[in-house]
Amino acid sequence: MPSRKFADGEVVMGRWPGSVLYYEVQVTSYDDVAHLYTVKYKDGTELALKESDIRSQSSFKHRKSQSSSSSPSRRSSSRSRSRSRSPGRPARGRRRSASQSREHKDDKKKTIQETSLALPVFVLFKPSENNTKRYNGEPESTEKNDTSCIILEQKLKPDLEVKRVLEQYSLRSRKDDKKKEEIYSEKKTFVAVKPIEKVSTKTKELEFGGRIGTFMLIFLLPATVFYLLLMCKQDDPSLLNLPPLPALESLWEGSVFGIFLLWFFLQAVFYLLPIGKVVEGLPLSNGRKLQYRINGFYAFILTAAAIGVLLYFQFELHYLYDHFMQFAVSAAVFSLALSIYLYVRSLRAPEEELAPGGNSGYFIYDFFTGHELNPRIGSFDLKYFCELRPGLIGWVVINLAMLLAEMKIHNLSVPSLSMILVNSFQLLYVVDALWNEEAILTTMDITHDGFGFMLAFGDLVWVPFVYSLQAFYLVGHPTTITWPIAAAITVLNCIGYYIFRSANSQKNSFRRNPADPKLANLKFIPTATGKGLLVTGWWGFVRHPNYLGDIIMALAWSLPCGFTHILPYFYVIYFICLLVHREARDEHHCKQKYGLAWERYCQRVPYRIFPYIY
């Protein structure tokens, strides 16, 4: 095992990932397994670096002094050689004017070169004042708009064009150019290094209770789904009234599993249709961007047309209600098989394609959280497909089946007002997600979490069978509400939806194009990673306003079920726990990623989800 070169607490020069710039850092720890140093920058950012990306401070000072000492001698020798007269030299008067002209151009070129050399550094870190200015000894600015960097870049473009022309028509000899190149290359050796290599690290901090917690969740999640569905079937769905266990043979039916497979592959066919635009996702750790076809809304329209054809030919859609438990079991079996396939194929995936949160080396943990970040079969992205298509669209189909089942069982000519509200609210939520499908590319599920049992079971089982719990409950436990109460619940849902949609749109627009003139009024705190933390708009109100809107909508979905039992409120209780846990994950990741900038953001925006409460 190679011995470490730098000790803990030693102040060295560390390269900033994705650039050729070195900054003063302090070594905090060393991983003997991965052979990586954990270093801390002056702004509080902590990163893991290879030993090849770290250099001692003395080596930098030595190279800089060597470069400066060699430059004058080279310039003087160049001047002495230029005094020798060539046979084709013009007369003295013209020679003096030409020399003055060349000196004027050289001065201008030198100025342009200095400006152009500063440009890459500025562009690379354009939103990160708390990074570059701190190291350059300049005062920090807490907030800024992001249009100034673009204006400066536009101002420098004419100068760069002049530089190109001067280089093309320069009157100096190629020897002088070569000498100048040598001098320039020596001067920049203290920042220029070999091409950037991918730093791969194991997942050190385990979430969800680590190996024991994830092992228990693999059994607890399916058990919770089946318990909730059995409770809804009872006449008295009280918490203390435990449902009897059904016979095992009653939980499985081959025809039901076949219908589920048909549904899954039908959505896959819709996904592969060459309709809708193709967009790029956020850059991966290696800088590559994956392409995604945005056609979820078209898939929803085609599904609605297919359901309409089935109803026209008098297909009994309430068949879903009669075999609801069997459909849930079929979906659970399929998600387990899919999870096993995903883990097996991830064992052959390159290191750079593994999920940052699912590369612990522990089988159970990686199987649950997802080992591979973006598993694909050709251009078919499995995680992105399952995130919105089979489960989310299936949720709407299940709600419709429950509405038809309520009408048939209770001999109603029209659905109850409670059922209409639940179906309408949740239909709006699904249509909004599919219409704004591109926004999901910036979520943690896509950018951070791997595709394993957690997301496979969540997308294919939890979403369609737990999120439709209110509609399933109303079939067996009809609830009557008045029109004023219905109007109040509708207003509450609209408030939640407005907060949810406007906050997400604001965030996604800023992430996609911070320089958009429409966002010029937004202020943000720059970070060392090049990204900004919004401190105005909804994101200056609470840190996760989209979570707040989500919770308000979840409450509005449960209220039409009345207050007789707590069972239909399981969704809103679960959702609060889920989002609080997700907020804690976000908090931890952002603190590591943004360092001191995140602390300033938390001081500026103290409330996490609920204003003045939490």
From TrEMBL:
It comes from the Eukaryota. Signal peptide: none annotated. Residues 66-75 have a biased composition (Low complexity). GO terms for biological process: cholesterol biosynthetic process. It is found in: Cytoplasm; Endoplasmic reticulum membrane; Nucleus inner membrane. GO terms for molecular function: Delta14-sterol reductase activity; DNA binding. It catalyses: 4,4-dimethyl-8,14-cholestadien-3beta-ol + NADPH + H(+) = 4,4-dimethyl-5alpha-cholest-8-en-3beta-ol + NADP(+); 4,4-dimethyl-5alpha-cholesta-8,24-dien-3beta-ol + NADP(+) = 4,4-dimethyl-5alpha-cholesta-8,14,24-trien-3beta-ol + NADPH + H(+); 5alpha-cholest-8,14-dien-3beta-ol + NADPH + H(+) = 5alpha-cholest-8-en-3beta-ol + NADP(+). Residues 53-112 are annotated as: Disordered. This is Delta(14)-sterol reductase LBR. It comes from Rhadina sibilatrix. The gene is Lbr.
